[in-house]
Amino acid sequence: MNPEFQTFAENFKLLRKKRGLTQSQLAEKIGLTKQSIVNYEKGNTFPTGNRLSKISEVLETPVEQLIGRENIQSRSELELLNSVQSKASFLAHYDIMTEHFTDEIFKFFIEQISTFSESELKQAILYLYDKRIQKEVDFYANDLAENIIRTTENQNKSNLDMDIVINPPTK
User: Fold this and answer.
1) What is the DSSP letter of 76?
2) In whole angstroms, how far apart are CA 24 and each of 7, 16, 20, 37?
3) Cβ distance 49 to 43 under 8 Å?
4) d(CA 138, CA 70)
5) 44, 142, 155, 163: which has the highest count of C-beta atoms within 10 A?
6) Cβ atoms of 129 and 90 closer than 8 Å
7) Beta strands in 17-162 (DSSP E)
8) Cα–Cα distance between 74 and 86 in angstroms, integer?
């Protein structure tokens, strides 16, 4: 089974239960049969178009959360997260690095930049991280804006309601 659809099935069931709804109650609110809800939760089918939007609305949850965050992370979002994590890692290890690292290359590096104070070096490195993070924030914001525009355009073009059959019944 496609992991993307399995993630939806798990999230769908969890969110339905979290909202205190039975399968029948949810089916009625969405305008589907109880069997459709059962198929979604088992991962046998996957809703598209207005059905997915209606499910999102009734469960008061963004579509992205329903299908699983790992399935919607864009390249720009991942790069932004990596940049922020790099800076956090630097800050977390800064003191340990300067006290315990004895590698000859590190010593050479320290000698070459010894004209700067420790505070100046730390600020320079943080500045470089901030600059990279700002670049990733800008790229991510542009990417996100383009995705919103594309999604809006696609919603205006197509309002197909159907389910994707993942596991056809065997007889």
Assistant:
1) H
2) 22, 11, 12, 8
3) no
4) 21
5) 44
6) yes
7) 45-47
8) 18
Read off the tokens for 4. 């993307």
94 to 5, 73, 118: CA distances (angstroms): 42, 30, 11
User: What is the C-alpha separation between 111 and 12, in angstroms, rounded?
Assistant: 58
Q: Which residues contact 132 (CB under 8 A, 6 or more apart)?
A: 83, 86
Q: Indicate whether this model's pTM tops 0.85.
A: no
Strand positions, DSSP E, 30-169: 45-47, 163-165
Return d(Cα 80, Cα 134) in angstroms, integer.
9
The answer to whether the Cα torsion of 23, 28, 32, 35 is positive or negative is positive
What's the pLDDT tens digit per position in 67-102? 775 544 556 666 777 777 777 776 666 666 656 666
Classify residue 159 as exposed, middle or buried by CB count within 10 Å of its CB (0-12, 13-18, 19+). Answer: exposed
pLDDT for 130-140, tens place per residue? 888 888 888 88
Query: Which H or E run contains 144?
Result: helix 118-157
Spell out where the chain has E strands.
45-47, 163-165
| pLDDT band at residue 25 using 50, 70 and 90 as cut-offs | very high
% of the chain at pLDDT higher than 90: 16
pLDDT in tens, 6-24: 578 888 898 899 899 999 9
